[in-house]
């Protein structure tokens, strides 16, 4: 493989000038121009020949080329055709890189099927392979990419990526704190998340108006196994946190009024030794998992006893970023 082109600000300015291009703000194009930070992100991915890497936001291929040096295979996705063309030059000679010019999202709730199929194909081709997301994620897709990967059945092991600082804080927020939201619970219930570094605007070109963060998200299989039905849990969190400051008894009675009587909600809360006047924003992920699992069991058991189908969540009703109206980005 040829030496990696270190894509500094001056290099990108000249590259864009030569091709008559400008960064697209509508696609969240803010290129990481500090090569030391690019190497920092890649290093924390802890890559080996057994890894298949998903990169979202290929850009000009500055990080892609570094990923290709260590990974078994890199599937790099960018919606911008112009960027895919520039990246192709940056990774010329890298036989272990597949560039995909496509939207990573089929819709806000689902990753693009073509991309997931490609990932499965490369995972199957490498015995004992692991899937990792390593990327300078565009701000515009940071939340849905992370949420949808969590919701998918892809065998991901780790995510190391740059995201907006506010999003990083939200994912790490503890119960009772101002930033604690459905997304906090959704991530923490299935993974261990840590902020590795805070980044100011000057390490990007063009400079964003906000700070960013490099985060590391590790899959926690034992924690995730406590959730009996992840789609139910995802829907539960979205709706519960849309009324995060109200007493949980009244919120749950309203949420499941078509499936449960208030007495059943009271019975479950009593069983869980909860008073009912707690608020969602004060309950930790473990407590919320117990509530969701209990509700799912009662609804399912009742549906079966009545000769109906088990409770199903309508995919159209589930927000992939599990963010509430009160807690949207």
Commentary on this structure:
The protein has helices spanning 9-19, 35-44, 62-70, 81-90, 113-125, 142-151, 165-172, 182-188, 221-224, 230-241, 248-255, 262-271, 285-305, and strands spanning 31-32, 51-56, 73-78, 97-101, 105-107, 110-111, 130-136, 156-164, 191-199, 204-205, 212-219. It is of the alpha/beta class.
Which class of secondary structure composition applies to the elements? alpha/beta
E-strand count: 11
Residue fraction in strands: 15-25%
Q: What Rg, in angstroms, do the CA atoms define?
A: 22 Å
Number of helices: 13
Number of domains: 2
Q: Sketch the topology as an H/E string, one letter per element.
A: HEHEHEHEEEHEHEHHEEEHHHHH
Topology diagram in text:
Blueprint: H1 9-19, E1 31-32, H2 35-44, E2 51-56, H3 62-70, E3 73-78, H4 81-90, E4 97-101, E5 105-107, E6 110-111, H5 113-125, E7 130-136, H6 142-151, E8 156-164, H7 165-172, H8 182-188, E9 191-199, E10 204-205, E11 212-219, H9 221-224, H10 230-241, H11 248-255, H12 262-271, H13 285-305
Parallel strand pairs: 2-3, 2-7, 3-4, 7-8
Antiparallel strand pairs: 1-10, 5-6, 8-11, 9-11
Helix pairs in contact: 8-10, 10-13, 12-13
């Amino acid at each position: 493989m040829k030496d990696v082109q270190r894509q500094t600000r001056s290099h990108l300015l000249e590259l864009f000038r030569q091709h008559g291009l400008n960064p697209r703000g509508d696609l969240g194009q803010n290129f990481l121009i500090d090569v030391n930070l690019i190497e920092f992100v890649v290093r924390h991915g802890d890559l080996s020949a057994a890894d298949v890497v998903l990169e979202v936001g290929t850009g000009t291929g500055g990080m892609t080329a570094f990923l290709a040096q260590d990974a078994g295979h890199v599937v790099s996705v960018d919606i911008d055709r112009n960027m895919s063309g520039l990246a192709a030059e940056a990774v010329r000679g890298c036989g272990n890189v597949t560039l995909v010019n496509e939207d990573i999202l089929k819709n806000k709730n689902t990753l693009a099927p073509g991309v997931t199929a490609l990932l499965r194909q490369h995972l199957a081709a490498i015995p004992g392979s692991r899937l990792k997301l390593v990327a300078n994620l565009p701000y515009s897709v940071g939340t849905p990419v992370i949420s949808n990967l969590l919701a998918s059945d892809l065998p991901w092991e780790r995510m190391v990526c740059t995201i907006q600082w506010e999003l990083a804080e939200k994912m790490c927020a503890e119960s009772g704190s101002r930033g604690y939201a459905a997304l906090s619970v959704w991530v923490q219930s299935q993974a261990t998340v840590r902020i590795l570094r805070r980044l100011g605007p000057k390490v990007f070109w063009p400079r964003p108006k906000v700070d960013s963060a490099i985060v590391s998200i590790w899959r926690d299989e034992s924690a995730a196994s406590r959730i009996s039905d992840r789609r139910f849990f995802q829907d539960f969190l979205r709706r519960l946190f849309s009324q995060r400051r109200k007493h949980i008894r009244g919120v749950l009675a309203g949420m499941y009024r078509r499936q449960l009587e208030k007495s059943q909600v009271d019975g479950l809360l009593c069983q869980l030794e909860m008073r009912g006047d707690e608020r969602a924003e004060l309950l930790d992920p473990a407590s919320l998992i117990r509530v969701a699992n209990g509700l799912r069991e009662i609804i399912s058991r009742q549906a079966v006893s009545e000769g109906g189908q088990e409770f199903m969540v309508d995919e159209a009703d589930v927000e992939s970023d599990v963010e509430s109206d009160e807690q949207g980005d």
